[in-house]
Amino acid sequence: MSFTTIIFQSLMSFFACVAFSVVFNAPKKELVFCGISGALGWFFYAALTRYISPTLATLSASALVTAFSRLASYHRQAPSTLYHIPGIMPLVPGTMIYNTMYTALNGMILETYTNILLGLKLAGAIGAGSLLILALPYSFFEIIPRRKKTK
User: Fold this and answer.
1) d(CA 1, CA 32)
2) Under a CB-based contact definition with an 8 Å cutoff, are residues 35 and 21 in contact?
3) How far apart are CA 133 and CA 148, in angstroms?
4) Under DSSP, is residue 98 helix (H, G, I), strand (E, B) or coil?
């Protein structure tokens, strides 16, 4: 995958995450950060899949999205799930779930098991990557001091 393709996909991921956040009534002033979360995660995932397995790339991208969400939560004074849920949406293995159903309905048993296992590995990687960062104390994200609010 070329660098231009990765940039384009990340931009589309940004808009998809913003649209997802609009549908679920995220505050308007936080929409940009919701989009950045998704674009950052997809960029990191797409760049890493050139060098490592999709499972490890998903784990790393999920950890990055979670870290960004916690950092944004600390600085923006909003819940981290506001940034985390839209950010992991591009990483969800929807294609694997579709392929699993397709192969199951067409009687391809071996391919169905392969797709089930890969989908479970990717979903587990999202969960594990999120838990690795969520286990860190909130004070860890005070690395960069908050900006004082001006009235």
Assistant:
1) 26
2) yes
3) 26
4) helix
Predicted TM-score (pTM) of this structure:
0.88
Residue 16, amino acid:
A
Structure tokens at 73: 């939560």
Cα angle: 29, vertex 32, 36; to 5 degrees:
150
| Rounded (5°) CA angle 58-64-69 | 125
- Token pair 């909130």 is found at 138
46 touches 60 (CB < 8 A): no
Instruction: State pLDDT tens for residues 19-66.
Output: 999 999 999 999 999 999 999 999 999 999 999 999 999 999 999 999
DSSP labels, 25-72: T--GGGHHHHHHHHHHHHHHHHHHTTTS-HHHHHHHHHHHHHHHHHHH
- Angle in degrees, 0-180, between the axes of helices 94-105 and 109-134, rounded to the nearest 10: 160
Comparing CA positions, the residue from 93, 10, 21 lying closest to residue 44 is 10
Query: Cα separation of 42 and 37, whole Å?
Result: 9
Residue whose structure tokens are 């950010």: 87
Q: Which amino acid, one-letter code, is at 55?
A: T
